[in-house]
Design brief:
Order of helices and strands: EE
Strand content: 15-25%
Number of strands: 2
Radius of gyration: 15 Å
Largest sheet: 2 strands, antiparallel
Shape: flat
Number of helices: 0
Helix content: under 10%
Distance between the termini: 42 Å
Amino acid sequence: MKNGIVGWENVGGDIAKVVGKRCILSGSPIRRYMGDGSIVRLVAFIDEDDMNDVPDRVYTYGTS
């Protein structure tokens, strides 16, 4: 991290749609004074035609 290399852990969501594909990643962390970790909103920019053909992820929590 001191050398300007960013690492992301525990990435979830529809990550299977871009696995093995070239895309632009954008991570927006919460800025913290002297912090070395944060929750991040991670977004992949990719053409819709280039995405892997996998079903959308269904989130079941928060429903009854």
